[in-house]
């Protein structure tokens, strides 16, 4: 017998898309259009995507990705906005990791589905992510406003 998502098919994806919430974590294939650089000639890389906000129509989601390591070859203006996330807070993680709050990644609602959901970030951590995004001078405050983060 297949999973519930397999049995429901497209309906499961529609249900998940309709029920997206701030704090949800999904795994999404992201690429250069999302400012993610995949390795080894790949077009996309699967990344954990944390939802801190939505546009006013709820169709475009603003988020941050989770990285397992900090790339110390990047300038401090980027790595200073990596927020530690512990496995004990997020059981879907395989390693203590970092929410990359150096930029806001944008994804359309149709990227999310029944197989992308991984869990929920604790609300206090989502609040910290929002505050880190707000405190980042390289992120346009109007963009943060668009996604309801400020």
Question: Would you mind describing this structure in some detail?
Answer:
The protein has 150 residues and is of the alpha+beta class. It has one domain: SH3 type barrels (Roll), CATH 2.30.30.110. The chain is built from five helices and six strands, in the order ααβββαβββαα. Strands 4-5-3-2-1-6 form a six-stranded antiparallel sheet. Strand 2 and strand 3 form a beta hairpin. The longest helix has 13 residues, at 123-135. The protein is globular, with a radius of gyration of 15 Å. The protein starts with a helix and ends with a helix. 27% of the residues are buried. The model has no long low-confidence stretch (mean pLDDT 87).
Structural key phrases:
SH3 type barrels, six-stranded antiparallel beta sheet, 6 strands
End-to-end separation: 45 Å
CATH classification class: Mainly Beta
Tell the overall outline: globular
Largest sheet: 6 strands, antiparallel
Provide the helix percentage.
Answer: 10-25%
Instruction: Output the radius of gyration.
Output: 15 Å
Low-confidence stretches: none
Produce the secondary structure layout:
Elements: H1 4-8, H2 10-18, E1 24-31, E2 44-54, E3 60-67, H3 76-79, E4 82-85, E5 97-108, E6 117-120, H4 123-135, H5 141-146
Antiparallel strand pairs: 1-2, 1-6, 2-3, 3-5, 4-5
């Amino acid at each position: 017998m297949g999973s519930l998502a397999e049995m429901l098919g497209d309906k499961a994806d529609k249900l998940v898309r309709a029920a997206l919430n701030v704090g949800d974590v999904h795994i999404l294939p992201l690429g250069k259009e999302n400012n993610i650089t995949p390795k080894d000639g790949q077009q996309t890389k699967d990344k954990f995507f944390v939802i801190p906000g939505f546009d006013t129509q709820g169709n475009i989601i603003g988020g941050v990705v989770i990285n397992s390591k900090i790339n110390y070859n990047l300038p401090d203006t980027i790595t200073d906005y990596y927020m530690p996330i512990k496995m004990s807070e997020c059981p879907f993680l395989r390693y203590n990791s970092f929410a990359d709050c150096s930029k806001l990644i944008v994804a359309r609602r149709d990227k999310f589905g029944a197989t992308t959901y991984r869990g929920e970030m604790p609300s206090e951590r989502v609040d910290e992510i929002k505050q880190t995004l707000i405190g980042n001078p390289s992120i346009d405050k109007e963009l943060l406003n668009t996604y309801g983060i400020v």
